[in-house]
Amino acid sequence: MLGSSSSIIRRQQFLIRALGGCFKKQTHQRFTMQSMMSGSALEADALSVLRSITPTLDPTRHKGQAGKIAVIGGCREYTGAPYFSAISALKIGADLSHVFCTKDAAPVIKSYSPELIVHPVLEESYSVRDEDKISISKKVLAEVEKWMERFDCLVVGPGLGRDPFLLDCVSGIIKHARESNVPVVIDGDGLFLVTNSLDLVSGYPLAILTPNVNEYKRLVQKVLNCEVNDQDAPEQLLLLAKRIGGVTILRKGISDLISDGETVSSVSMYGSPRRCGGQGDILSGRQVIQ
Ligand SMILES: NC(=O)C1=CN([C@@H]2O[C@H](COP(=O)(O)OP(=O)(O)OC[C@H]3O[C@@H](n4cnc5c(N)ncnc54)[C@H](O)[C@@H]3O)[C@@H](O)[C@H]2O)[C@@H](O)CC1
Ligand SMILES: Nc1ncnc2c1ncn2[C@@H]1O[C@H](COP(=O)(O)OP(=O)(O)OP(=O)(O)O)[C@@H](O)[C@H]1O
């Protein structure tokens, strides 16, 4: 199935629908989505976007057809972020949600929810001897790769941390996802990784980057070699997405801006005024829903 044209089309449709999921706030409120292309604006109805991304309940469907996703994230410090991401995909209707995290994080994440499938496969430098790094890295990749074909989408980064050995293994996972045409949402520390290794996503149209204010700043500095310009925010975002070879970027903020390098959309529905940790993680999980 993997790599067949129907699989690729399914993943493209999946991604298109995922982009509809970029609205982030309470669904009972009305919101507007403005698509700006060459100065013109389009408005879309929130309810139709919601309907289009919510898997239908159909008695003829079997387990998995409403989406199988995996989150790559979770380390000693951060166990909440991958949980939020993985559980939000399930809550909006996906059938199966996996988490690939470090050995320390796994029992904690498992204890949050029996619905998640948790793989304690990632390793941080402190637990690996230098002479074992190559073989352990191969083992980690093999563990994830054997599952890869089952996934409709990966989320890479929530609560991943920044351990160099761990990030090196995750680079291998992104490369494999890309070779397998699996869409990848990059968030949190995954953005730290790809900002420093742009080749991982550059030119991959099935990549969605979801930077917050700091992550966006780092991307702009690295790719455009300048500072964030809020006066011309849509134009700058469009240029950034284009320079990274047509990836989709969702810039989070008071209004979310989304661009694939050809058009820019904004989602300006206002939701909760709370700005607590975890809201972006929930958003990253919602984006993968079929
Ligand atoms: N419960 C958990 O496990 C959580 C884990 N998280 C993980 O923590 C790691 C680091 O993410 P962070 O988001 O903390 O790192 P960032 O580097 O994005 O943010 C760090 C700092 O930026 C500041 N900041 C945030 N918004 C700002 C704004 N609009 N203007 C100016 N400063 C602003 C914050 O106060 C914070 O001090 C990631 O792996 C992430 O996934 C977070 O998602 C939060 C929840
Ligand atoms: N100033 C703001 N006003 C209103 N909404 C905002 C504001 N900043 C961010 N948001 C919204 O909050 C959600 C989370 O964005 P945020 O910038 O907190 O992400 P994050 O830092 O990656 O989150 P996390 O704590 O999960 O890592 C997004 O849906 C975004 O649209």
UniProtKB/TrEMBL annotation:
Class of this enzyme: lyase
Keyword Ion transport listed: no
Alphabetical GO biological process terms: metabolite repair; nicotinamide nucleotide metabolic process
Record flagged with keyword Hydrolase: no
InterPro entries: CARKD (IPR000631), Ribokinase-like (IPR029056)
Keywords: ATP-binding, Kinase, Lyase, NAD, NADP, Nucleotide-binding, Phosphoprotein, Transferase
Residue stretches making up the YjeF C-terminal domain: 46-290
Residues holding (6S)-NADPHX: 159, 212-218, 281
SUPFAM superfamilies registered for this protein in UniProt: Ribokinase-like
GO molecular function: ATP binding; ATP-dependent NAD(P)H-hydrate dehydratase activity; kinase activity
Coiled coil start-end: none
PROSITE patterns xref list: YJEF_C_3 (PS51383)
Gene3D superfamilies: 3.40.1190.20
Entries under Pfam families matching the protein: Carb_kinase
Record's catalysed reaction(s): (6S)-NADHX + ATP = ADP + phosphate + NADH + H(+); (6S)-NADPHX + ATP = ADP + phosphate + NADPH + H(+)
Family matches, as HAMAP family: NADHX_dehydratase
Assigned protein family: Belongs to the NnrD/CARKD family.
Function: Catalyzes the dehydration of the S-form of NAD(P)HX at the expense of ATP, which is converted to ADP. Together with NAD(P)HX epimerase, which catalyzes the epimerization of the S- and R-forms, the enzyme allows the repair of both epimers of NAD(P)HX, a damaged form of NAD(P)H that is a result of enzymatic or heat-dependent hydration.
Stated name of the protein: ATP-dependent (S)-NAD(P)H-hydrate dehydratase
